[in-house]
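A.,

Following up on our hallway conversation. Structure tokens first:
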């Protein structure tokens, strides 16, 4: 059996959903589990409802618009008014209930609200598949992927998930199973989410538990590219990539695949195809266990970076105990360092600019250090650099920090530069 994953852009309107259905039809007779994200920008819209609600502002028009967006898609897909419209109304009520939960834990509320985007999309897509003669079962991922209660970034209980998911194995041979990406549930039955853009990871979890033959992530790009083509039009598509290389690129910020996706697949040797949803004939990229002799330089841009420098104030040098203070302060806030460097009297690190957390970090570190910070930076990582790319990226104006190893060059620059 195989696992397919379609992201929000592939189900953003009726035409896109018809394309998804055509892809599934062309695989008729094969065992498939299909993982689907929320439609278009639904997850952002749900996040926005929470923000409005928290700010004590009315969210009813925005909720109306969101349900209206889904209703319009249902009307485009189905000739007759369909019981689905009623189901959409039910989800609308569930969103209201979740928004109005007693605010004991805002992350718990977030997961109850945001997880419903995937419920809306999969209800519509699976009903449409059935309507056009693809025999489909809608499966609730909240009953299949079991997690801890670390809301917004839940950790998988692999043992329990494996048991639940394997109960599906027989059905997959008879019907196409459509389920949600990104969501699961914890032991008290509350929904959890696996982190933004986490549907790729869900696909990998299902594939690993079912020992799938392969996973295919269908995207709006022709495959994994050597850089974001919107920034570097000369970017090329990789035909194949070793798992290790793909995992590292996601670590540096390449957004083509969610960073947690590769590990479960690599552990079981399950190949991952990244294919173009608009042009199924394109070969795409195959990520698997392989050795590629010479990979072209891979360039990853990560915007909205912040550089924090901690200087010792009393003529001592930076030493382990001080680095310990810095890392404890980072880890207690769940902040991840993207680049670090030290000199005799200062320790600098670059991280994603999460304003609230970083301000509280700076305040705490201010007790032990003199702290400076810059925002509005872009971290450029060039993996497998060659002479040309090494020179080009080092010789830019406004380089704030630079670091290189034998295979990887990283430069932190002020963002306004055009590249
Ligand atoms: N719908 C979720 C998000 O937008 C998960 C995903 O698309 O992978 O983050
Ligand atoms: Mg998405």
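Then the amino acids I'd put at each of the 419 positions:
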């Amino acid at each position: 059996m195989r696992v397919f994953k379609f992201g929000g852009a592939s189900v953003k309107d009726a035409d896109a959903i018809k394309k998804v259905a055509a892809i599934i039809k062309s695989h008729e007779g094969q065992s498939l589990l299909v993982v689907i994200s929320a439609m278009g920008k639904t997850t952002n819209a749900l996040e926005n409802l929470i923000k409005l609600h928290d700010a004590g502002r009315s969210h009813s028009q925005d909720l109306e618009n969101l349900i209206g967006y889904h209703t319009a898609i249902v009307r485009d897909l189905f000739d007759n008014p369909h019981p689905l419209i009623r189901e959409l109304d039910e989800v609308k009520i569930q969103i209201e209930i979740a928004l109005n939960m007693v605010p004991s834990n805002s992350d718990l509320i977030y997961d109850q609200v945001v997880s419903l985007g995937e419920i809306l999309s999969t209800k519509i897509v699976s009903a449409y598949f059935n309507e056009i003669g693809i025999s489909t079962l809608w499966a609730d991922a909240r009953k299949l992927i079991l997690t801890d209660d670390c809301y917004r970034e839940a950790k998988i209980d692999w043992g329990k998930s494996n048991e639940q998911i394997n109960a599906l194995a027989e059905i997959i041979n008879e019907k196409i199973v459509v389920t949600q990406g990104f969501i699961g549930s914890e032991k008290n039955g509350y929904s959890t989410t696996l982190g933004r853009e986490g549907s790729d990871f869900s696909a990998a979890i299902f594939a690993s538990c079912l020992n799938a033959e392969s996973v295919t992530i269908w995207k709006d790009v022709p495959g994994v590219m050597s850089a974001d083509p919107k920034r570097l039009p000369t970017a090329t598509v990789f035909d194949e990539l070793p798992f290790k290389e793909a995992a590292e690129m996601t670590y540096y910020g390449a957004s083509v695949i969610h960073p947690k996706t590769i590990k479960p697949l690599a552990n079981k040797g399950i190949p991952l195809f990244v294919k173009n949803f608009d042009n199924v004939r394109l070969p795409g990229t195959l990520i698997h266990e392989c050795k590629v002799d010479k990979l072209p330089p891979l360039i990853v841009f990560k915007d909205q970076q912040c550089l924090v420098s901690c200087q010792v104030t009393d003529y001592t040098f930076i030493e382990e105990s001080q680095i310990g203070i810095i890392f404890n302060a980072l880890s207690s806030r769940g902040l991840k360092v993207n680049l670090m460097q030290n000199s005799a009297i200062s320790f600098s690190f670059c991280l994603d600019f999460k304003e609230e957390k970083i301000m509280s970090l700076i305040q705490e570190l201010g007790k032990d250090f003199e702290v400076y910070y810059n925002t509005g930076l872009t971290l450029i990582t060039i993996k497998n650099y060659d002479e040309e790319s090494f020179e080009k990226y080092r010789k830019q104006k406004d380089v704030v920090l630079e670091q290189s190893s034998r295979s990887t060059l990283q430069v932190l620059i002020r963002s306004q530069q055009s590249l």
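The chain has a mean pLDDT of 94. Curious whether your intuition agrees with the design.

B.
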